[in-house]
Amino acid sequence: MAKIQMAEPKDADLIYRHLMKVSGQTNNLSYSQKDIHKYLDEIKISDQMHDANATVFFAAFENEEIVGLAQLSRRNLPRYINRGDLAVSVDQDFWNQGIGSTLMEQVIDWAANDWKLHGIYLDVISGNLHAIDLYKEYGFKIIGDLPLLMTVSGRDIAGKLMFKEIVH
After folding, report:
1. CATH of domain 3-165
2. 3-state SS of 89-134?
3. Which residues contact 161 (CB under 8 A, 6 or more apart)?
């Protein structure tokens, strides 16, 4: 079973490799391999991790590789400090092993107890029913349709905006 822990700046290379791998496995993510290569590198990932008040990464490690990743971000502006944005990815070789669920539990716990957020947003491709079902299991509700979430290979893809209220 994968070990889940908060990623540290020293894990930036592993995060980069994970993102490159999973972005080649599915079009359900916000980025393609080309996007990652162009806009991200280990230094940029590490820089994001140095402000634990703005971004945290929880990683699922298996044999010293990252096989799942959850990123929780928030803007450090007073008017936005109580809301977070979530992104989750799991290596296709490790789907249906509970990694996504465990990452969700860790992120929600962090959001509620460490950052004291009032809510978490995420967006998901409308056709990604497996992910939508997972998010619903953790209390996320569909709050809107996004006629254009992203464009993949020149084709516009619709999405859903989901939200989980955190009550303290």
Report:
1. 3.40.630.30
2. EECHHHCCCCHHHHHHHHHHHHHHHCCCCCEEEEEEECCCHHHHHH
3. 121, 122, 123, 142, 143, 144, 145, 146
Determine the pLDDT at residue 111.
Answer: 97
Q: Output the pTM of the full model.
A: 0.93
What are the extents of the domains in the chain?
A: 3-165
Alpha-carbon torsion, ordered 27, 128, 164, 162, to 10 deg:
80
Query: Are residues 162 and 123 in contact, defined by beta-carbon separation less than 8 angstroms?
Result: yes
* 38 burial via Cβ count (<10 Å: 0-12, 13-18, 19+): exposed
Residue 21's CB is within 10 A of a number of other CB atoms, namely 18
Indicate the pLDDT class of residue 65, thresholds 50, 70 and 90. Answer: very high
Q: Which two tokens stand for residue 87?
A: 């992104």
Tell me the per-residue pLDDT of 87-112, one tens digit each, with 9 for 90 and over. 999 999 999 999 999 999 999 999 99
pLDDT tens, residue by residue, 4-57:
999 999 999 999 999 999 999 999 999 899 988 888 877 788 888 778 789 999
Reported residue count of the chain is 168
